[in-house]
Write a structure and sequence with these properties.
This protein is an alpha+beta fold. The chain has three helices and seven strands.
Length: about 130
């Protein structure tokens, strides 16, 4: 893999690594007014857990009461498949509104070496 390149808000856009409902066309159209085009990538050292969503607006948009949430494990054996999308700062603001507690946005280096924002939950208790 090449050197990681910091892409945070370069030329007004940044990368989002999505592993869940933000990959859904209807969620994209509702949040951004457009369908996103992305590239596959992986996030190492994290695993997915189920999260029950209680926010009715989010459930209405996604059509799902249970979403997934990435949790840091630090284990090289844990790896999440997802998609990288380019979003504007305004689109990230919309995403911040969509992603409810306990999701928080952090910047990570993906297996490709790209820097991207990703929404994660608290680490697992054993991590």
């Amino acid at each position: 893999m090449g050197l990681a390149v910091r892409l945070s808000y370069h030329a007004g856009v940044a990368l989002l690594f999505s592993y869940g409902t933000l990959q859904l066309r209807d969620v994209q159209l509702t949040n951004y007014g457009r369908e996103l085009v992305g590239e596959p990538d992986f996030l190492s050292g994290y695993r997915l857990d189920d999260l029950t969503i209680r926010n009715r607006d989010v459930v209405s948009i996604s059509g799902r009461a249970v979403h997934t949430i990435a949790r840091f494990t630090g284990s090289a054996a844990d790896r999440i498949e997802g998609t990288c999308f380019e979003l504007t700062e305004a689109e990230f603001a919309a995403t911040d509104d969509y992603e409810v507690e306990p999701y928080r946005r952090i910047e990570v280096t993906l297996e490709s070496g790209r820097m991207a924002w990703v929404y994660v939950g608290p680490p697992l208790a054993s991590s």
